[in-house]
Every structure is written in structure tokens, then in C-alpha cells.
Amino acid sequence: MSLKINDVTLRDGNHAVSHSIDLKLIEKYCKTIDSGGLYSVEVGHGNGLGASSLQVGLCAEKDVDMLTVARANLKNTRLCVHTIPSFATINKNLNAAIDIGVDIFRVGTHCTEADVTERHINYLKSKNKEVYGALMMIHMTDFDTILSECKKIESYGADGVVLMDSVGYFTNEEVSILVAKLKEGLSLEIGFHAHNNLGMAINNSMDALKAGAGILDGSAFGLGAGAGNAQLEVLLAVLNKNGYNYSLKPVVECANLIRARFPNDMPRIDESSLFSGLYGVFSGFKKHVQRIALQYDLNEHDVWFELGKNSVIAGQEDLIVDIALKLKA
Does domain 271-328 have CATH number 1.10.8.60? Predict the structure, then answer.
């Protein structure tokens, strides 16, 4: 059975640790995971290439350095990056990643704005790269619109599209219906990226697979934004019970490596993650909301509720302070 597993620990996991993953960890992680039989490992700032900034968080390491170290230590596994056109430019960011030898590019955008990916996808395909469109915050629109946006990505020449349940909002049935609908309407490969804010990441990933998805994301110990991603070692164990044959030893070693390095940042469904998933707010806001709620002496629930009511999306971190000020007024 053909299935591509993409490990997002060293990218989405950066959200959970304030983008503090360093080069030593990247080196050791990549050396260890390389024998795990995974399709790809995603590396970088939580928001992708070129995203390190005061607004969304400064990264401990430069993109070029992180990718160079990862490339040197991945022999069997492809190197993947996430890139959002509003953060990354072709000349400064994409070309540098191409020169380093990145194999796979995921071009991300809000779920209703696939148009902005066209230039990046076209350019990367002209360089013979494996390219996917990535629709983020997919809970914020209806399934027909998602299909329409995916068709745009298909027309740009992408190899596939990744559906990103960025807040862990969906239930099993919703995932099954959405993936099946897209399988009927597209010739593209479909991927699913789960978050665990409502405790559904493993179930949703398996339902996506059963409905026809060919790519699943996961992270070691679940390290990722909000309550984390689908826990990679658990996902592989469940897959093995369903006829696959993944080697668990290197993945468990990587999970232990992550737990030892970030003992206070292990993902869990706490009140912030729960309210993020319930109100459909980007999981990557978690540390920002916790910090700002504490600073302004606010209840986290009230901040999450207002963010959801205002349909705030990834990249609008500055609005969290605006909402906090309104709540204090």
C-alpha cells in the first residue's frame, strides 16, 4: 500500500517551543529518523521559509543553516519545506532552498486564497521540484470552496494538495466526506495534516487515509502548535496494525529525543488548545494568547472566543493585542 509519511516535528514543532529548535537537535534528529522509512522530513520556522520575525516569532537559527544541516544528515529521506508567499520570496528564499537541495516544497495559503500560490508553484515546477499546495485553516470555509481552491492548485501544475486542519477542528465524519469529495473531483494526490486540539488527530488521519489520502503528516511525541500534531510514533503503530510495515525504533528514539530536549513543552490538550480547536483559531497562537492574557490579566477563554468571533487567521498575531485591549476597556 502506497503512503507518504511526512514528519513535521522540526517545522510545526517549532511553534510549540517558540521556534527554538537548534542545529544540534536538527542534526541528531535527522540522523536518527533517516532510517525510519519515512517519505520526508519538514524543517524550518513554524510558519515556513522567511517567516522569522517579531510578529510571528524569531527563530533561533537561520533558514539556510537549518536546511544545510538537515540536508547533510538525510540520506534516505527527502527534505521538505513549508513556504507561505507572504513570508517567502522566490529570489531570497526559494532559490536558496533549491541551492541547498530541498526536495519538496509545500506552498501554503489560507484555505480561500489559493491564487497567491500560483507564482511559487509555477516557478518551483520549472525547477523540477516536487510541489504541493497546502490549504491552511480548512475549517473556515465550505467543502465546495475547498474543492474549487484545490482545482486552482491543480491547474498550476502542483503534484498534490495538503489539507491542513490547522486547529484540530474536524471530526472523523467531516474528514471522510471532505477527502472523498476531493478524490472524486481531482486527479491530484491528497494529503492530510492533523492537529490534536480536540483529541482527534490519529482518528482523523486514519479516516483521511481510508477516504483516499496518500500523504499523512505527523510529529514525534506530537510536538506541534496547539495540542500538537498526530503523534508520529502512534500513527505508525496504528498503520502497522492496518497492514503497513514501518520501523518504530528510530521514530521512538526521536520522540524520546524531543521529550528530553523540551520536557516542559510536550503537547497536551490544555485549556488553550481546547478553546483554539473549539472556536477554530490557529493553533500557533497558543503561546501568544497565553502571554498576552497573562500580561493584561485576562481569562484565556475570553481571548480565544473573541479571536474566533473575529475570524482571525494565521499571520494576524498583532490582532491578539488589539482584542486584549478591547476586552480590558
Answer: yes
H or E stretch at 305: helix 300-309
For residue 161, the cross-strand partners are 133, 190
Position 1 pLDDT exceeds 60: no
Dist CA 193 CA 308 (whole Å): 21
- In this structure, whether the domain defined by 4-261 belongs to CATH 3.20.20.70 is answered with yes
Name the pLDDT band for 3 (thresholds 50, 70, 90): very high
pLDDT, tens digit, 9 for 90 and up, residues 228-268? 999 999 999 999 999 999 999 999 999 999 999 999 999 99
Cβ within 8 Å of residue 184, ≥6 positions away? none
Domain with CATH 1.10.8.60 in the chain: 271-328
The per-residue DSSP string of 265-303 comes to ------HHHHHHHHHT--GGGHHHHHHHHHHTT--HHHH
User: What stretch(es) of the chain map to CATH 3.20.20.70?
Assistant: 4-261
- Residue of 130, 189, 140 whose CA lies nearest to 164: 140
Which residues in 206-223 are b (16+ Cβ under 10 Å) and which e? bbbbebbbbbbbbbbbbb
pLDDT tens for each residue of 259-307 = 999 999 999 999 999 999 999 998 888 889 999 999 999 999 999 999 9
CA dihedral 120, 121, 123, 126 (to 10 degrees): 170
- Give the catalytic positions in this structure: 15
Q: Closest by alpha carbon to 122, among 111, 110, 133, 134? A: 133
Give the Cα separation of 134 and 86 in Å (integer).
14
Find the range with the poorest average confidence among 7-16, 54-63, 114-123: 54-63
- What distance separates the 2 farthest-apart alpha carbons in the chain? 57
